[in-house]
Amino acid sequence: MASMKNEGGKIHLSGPLSEWLFSSKFWFDFNARHGTMFDQFEEDDADVPIVNAIVEALDVKVSFLQNLGVSDIEFVYRWTPEQGFLKISVPRESLLSELVRFRDFLVDAAAKNHCVTLSL
């Protein structure tokens, strides 16, 4: 979930989108580049410059999905205690449309000069 401070606006990310962002190393790479600590099952605040940086990074993912020549995205979303893994397959278009909604939510927050709380 992401919510705007002082505004009340919220967006809930589906499990598949949230898992894909971690599985694709989106947050790992973002944290490495920006010195942030966005992590799964944690809640963190992002000020406007960081929100803008997230938007830019999401634009790269949006472009990647738009240009991907497959109808479904398959990725590892869980590891078992025996070190096995579980995969999920998600329609590319549904992942893409939700990613765009998330990006647009963040664009709106930044335009209103609002910090965002991310519960990943």
Notes on the protein architecture:
This protein is an alpha+beta fold. It has one domain (about 1-110). The protein contains 4 helices and 6 strands, in the order ββααβαββαβ. Strands 2-1-6-3 form a 4-stranded antiparallel beta sheet. It has a two-stranded antiparallel ribbon with strand order 4-5. Helix 3 packs antiparallel against helix 4 (about 90-110). The termini are close together.
With helices defined by DSSP (H or I, 4 residues minimum), what is the helix count? 4
Strand content: 15-25%
What is the SS-derived class?
A: alpha+beta
pLDDT averaged residue by residue: 91
Count of folded domains: 1
Described by the principal axes of the CA atoms, the overall outline is: globular
| Biggest sheet descriptor | 4 strands, antiparallel
What percentage of residues falls in helices of 4 or more residues? 40-55%
Reading the helices and strands in chain order gives EEHHEHEEHE
What does the secondary structure layout of this molecule look like, with pairings?
Layout: E1 2-4, E2 10-11, H1 15-23, H2 26-34, E3 43-46, H3 48-67, E4 72-79, E5 85-91, H4 92-111, E6 116-119
Antiparallel strand pairs: 1-2, 1-6, 3-6, 4-5
Helix pairs in contact: 3-4
What can be said about this structure in brief?
The protein is α+β, with helices and mostly antiparallel strands and 120 residues long. The protein has one domain. It contains four helices and six strands; from the N terminus they run ββααβαββαβ.
Name its key features.
120 residues; four-stranded antiparallel sheet; two-stranded antiparallel sheet; globular
